[in-house]
Amino acid sequence: MTVHQLRRLTPPEEALIASAESGLAEGDETRRNAIATLRRDGLPHRRIEAWHYTDLRTLVGGTQRGLIGKIIDAVLPTSEPSFLSPLLPGSTVVDLGATATPPASLPAGVAISRSGAMPDWHEVVNHLDRDVDTIRLVGAAFGATATHVSVTANTDVEHAIELRAEPLDNGDRGFAICDVGAGSKAVFVERLSAGAAGALSTGIANLAIGDGAEVLWIIDQEKGERETHLGQLNVTIGKDALFRLFVLNAGGALVRMEVHAETLGEGADIQIRGVNLLRGSQHVDVTTTLNHTVPNTTSTETFRNVVTGGHGVFQGMIKVSKGAQKTDARMACNTLLLSDDGDFSAKPELEIFADDVQCGHGATAGEINADHLFYLMSRGIPLEAARALLVKAFVREVVEEIEHEAAVEALEARIDAWLEQ
Amino acid sequence: MPAVQETIDQVRRIDVDQYKYGFETLIEMDVAPKGLDETTIRLISAKKNEPEWMLQWRLDAFERWKTMENPSWARLDYPAIDFQDIHYYAAPKSMSGPKSLDEVDPEILRTYEKLGIPLKEQEILAGVLKPQGEHVTEDDDRLPAPSGRVAVDAVFDSVSVATTFRKELEKAGVIFMPISEAIREHPDLVRQYLGTVVPVTDNFFATMNSAVFTDGSFVYVPPGVRCPMELSTYFRINERNTGQFERTLIIADKGSYVSYLEGCTAPQRDENQLHAAVVELIALDDAEIKYSTVQNWYPGDKDGKGGIYNFVTKRGDCRGRNAKISWTQVETGSAITWKYPSCILRGDNSRGEFYSIAVSNGRQQIDSGTKMIHLGKNTSSRIISKGISAGQSNNTYRGQVTANRRATNARNFTQCDSLLIGEECGAHTVPYIEAKNATAQFEHEATTSKISEDQLFYCMQRGIPEEEAVALIVNGFVRDVIQQLPMEFAVEAQKLIGISLEGSVG
User: Fold this and answer.
1) How far B226 CA sits from the closest chain A CA (Å)?
2) What chain A residue is nearest to B436 in terms of C-alpha separation?
3) What pLDDT shows up at residue A109?
4) Chain A residue nearest residue B406, CA to CA
């Protein structure tokens, strides 16, 4: 009964494909295939469950026409010159751009190499149950090239490694493959700074954390007010390894940030914290899947959202495979809606196939607690100051859980800069 | 932590091979030829002596349905349904429509007796009442029988065979009759409300139902009337290769109150049978509707052979100020369940509630939940859902809570717990929480401690352990409804609600 007809592409889709084709070199078959697939499938829309709240097909056109992402009377923190210095002092900055040269000196145990390999959009693990992964596909269509960063076993990398991609006119193309050897410790910062207006960037990173290793990964997304960013972080976590992630979304017109993590060994622990700050008519979507595939693994995930305008989305999925007994997974998404000009949609999902596990999810949305406000005001703090204090406290609570002094300090500074505008 | 033994035992008692209602009634039936086309629709309409507008309504729906696709977003896996391989109308030959009880085929009466459904207009005495017929079970912990009386509309395949207590209800001004009759006798009321909550074009199965619905109940409670007794409809699928397409419409006019129960069973067969229903509830200013379901369609056997495919659209519209609609469901049957009883909270200060217990065994698949759409100011809703999966079943809670931009001070509290028994089953939760108003307060929790901390505290302070306190509170929500259910169900439902939350995975 169902006949699927080939859909006519929308003008924004055509424009995107034309933009990808313009950089296509002779003999670049991977890229040519990616463009052909993009032409065949088009961009995802709201009837595709994984993109329910982010209809790329129409939204991409919106950013191009300036319909979304206009940030009212705000000067983005990205325009500050300090943004060019690394987020964390002493970091090794690695440029992921196609023509970049690796840094002159690297910390002991860290190696960087570049390969011509393109990201494969048909990877083995397809977290969103789709045949084709949109973000990897778009990355491949624009010819993202991989930069490998490896940390040998039992190395404690003292300073952070900051990953950036040089901005191009049609967006930057970060693609990093990071391996952290068994028993090592490392901090990575993914820095997504403002580029050209109307640009569509992709930032893809694959991170493999070896047994007993510890990684703190920070995503600092402060894209420009007319930019689209499609980001994806794919992580595997070894036995007794720890993966800590902090996501800050404080910019961009249209942002989709995906995090897909999978436990490979018992004792693996995932700790995700994030803050999404929205205003104007921004559209910011954070989509995560945490796959507990082996027994005795744990995860905690907390996102705090402050919305004064625009559309915020959180889709969090916890999957517990058959046999992954004693999984303990907790997810929370709390939203402060400070204006009727904004909205927030949350879809915290659980998919459980094991009977001896603890999984929980919570989601709240509301305005500032009136009791808290009253408490502060009754002590002589004016309304505006009291509100500001409570908003700050609401987001700082999760920042402080990173347990990395320099990172807490740096991120709080970025958040304060946003809140003070 | 894993499920406790007591829970495992209780769930085992309602496992698929324990299905008690799988017998068949052998009577001569008048069956429409297989297939769905205009002729079938005209035939149904003619059998029901419908006015022309109703036939046109059906035909319009059918035209629309032909352009629609079977939805695939639910977590359900079933072979494509051949809609041309189903009989869309089946009625006992002895009757073309409901008559007085004396005229009903005794075989049908015996069927309802066996199912424990009282079709006799007798006062049910308080105290322990043994179910009629030979299906006395080992259950000794019976509930006290309902203290009041229950008016029953009995729908057998495509026709209503009897509706009890109609005279007495009429005295109170309450209209309770098969919808096929209401279309003839109260066409203005039906036309005014039919399809206003679930539009003809709402979804694939609702549109199909609009084209081919056969029977169901119609209830109208006039302003200021508190319906003097429980109303209930009992749906029975009997004939082979038939589908049942019930349509129920309940209107509670200003300041009225009605409580309504439905029960469903079907014979045990190797084939899959389709049940696609539409239920519409309308509550005007200050009115309240309580709607309870005990869904016990045949679930199929251990290997997933046979069983009812249950695709149901149920929606209530709190159309007036201070209106209240509450859904309670106990879901234990059906091979496939696709069902989301919802509330549109349109009137200011209106309130929606959804209490659900869904137990899946064998290879059953349940994708069920609710939608609370907050449109009016100061609207509130509460969702309590418990899913229990055992065997090789999959049990999904899918719920949506939306606060419209104008829904100032909307409140929602959602709690959904799931429990797995064994390693072969799955439990899933898919909530959609959409806040578009800054003053809306939404809380979605999977933890049991948040039901109502005050109530919990109250119980625990008096020495009741947390576990028992939680069960007590959940029980309290649904107790009065459950006690009104037909005996056999009440016992089961009560047990299910009492199931320990220990081992809940969230």
Assistant:
1) 37
2) A343
3) 93
4) A340
Contacts of A346 in chain B (CB under 8 A): 431-434, 444
Instruction: Classify the C-alpha dihedral A79-A84-A87-A88 as positive or negative.
Output: negative
List pLDDT tens digits, range A70-122: 443 333 444 444 446 899 999 999 988 877 777 878 999 999 988 766 656 55
Are the C-beta atoms of A335 and B435 separated by less than 8 Å?
yes
**E runs forming strands in B1-61:** 29-31
Closest to A136 in 3D by CA, of A208, A233, A55: A233
B400 touches chain A (CB under 8 A): no
For residue B499, CA distances in Å to A212, B231, B263 come to 41, 27, 21
For A49, which DSSP code?
G
Model confidence at B322, pLDDT cuts 50, 70, 90, reads very high
The answer to whether B1 contacts A338, with C-beta atoms less than 8 Å apart, is no
The pLDDT of residue A81 is 40
* Contact (CB<8Å) B506/A359: yes
Whether residue A398 contacts residue A274, with contact meaning beta carbons closer than 8 Å, is answered with yes
The minimum CA-CA distance between A179 and chain B, rounded to whole Å, is 33
Amino acid at A335: T
User: Are the Cβ atoms of B435 and A365 closer than 8 angstroms?
Assistant: yes
In the block, tokens 């060019």 appear at A84
- Structural tokens at position A307: 């919305």
β-bridge mates for residue A276, sequence order = A249, A305
Instruction: Return the closest-CA partner of residue A389 out of A364, A355, A420, A359.
Output: A420
Between B162 and B426, whose confidence is greater? Answer: B426
Question: Of B293, B312, B314, B381, which Cα lies nearest the Cα of B345?
Answer: B381
B422–chain A Cβ distance below 8 A for any pair: yes
Residue to test with chain A: of B84, B442, B504, most A Cβ within 10 A: B442
Q: How confident is the model at residue A4 (pLDDT cuts 50, 70, 90)?
A: very low
Q: What is the DSSP string of B80-139?
A: PP-TTSSBS-EEETT-SS---GGGS-HHHHHHHHHTT---S--PPPSS--PPSSS---S-
Query: Quick check: B81 contacting A, CB < 8 Å?
Result: no
What pLDDT, on the 0 to 100 scale, is given for residue B447?
39
Q: Alpha-carbon distance A330 to A359, whole Å?
A: 6
Inspect the interface and report whether the beta carbons of A349 and B433 lie closer than 8 Å.
no
Domains of chain B, residue spans:
5-498
Residue B144 pLDDT greater than 60, yes or no? no
Query: In this complex, which of B70, B420, B435 lies closest to A355 when CB atoms are compared?
Result: B420
Whole-angstrom Cα distance, residue B365 to residue B77?
Answer: 8
Taking the Cβ of residue B440 and every Cβ of chain A, the question of whether any pair is shorter than 8 Å is answered with yes
What's at B352, amino acid-wise?
Answer: G
CB nearest B421 (choices: A49, A349, A355): A355
Rounded-to-integer distance, Cα B111 and Cα B101, Å: 14
- The residue ranges of DSSP E strands in A264-416, in sequence order, are 269-278, 283-292, 298-307, 310-320, 328-337, 342-352, 358-366
Query: What ipTM describes this predicted complex?
Result: 0.86
Distance between CA atoms of A346 and A335, rounded to whole angstroms? Answer: 9
Which residues does A374 contact at the CB level (< 8 Å), separation at least 6?
A: none
Of B426, B437, B443, the CB nearest to A340: B437
Choose among A322, A346, A367: nearest Cβ to B438. Answer: A367
- Which chain B residue has its CA at the smallest distance from A324's CA? B423
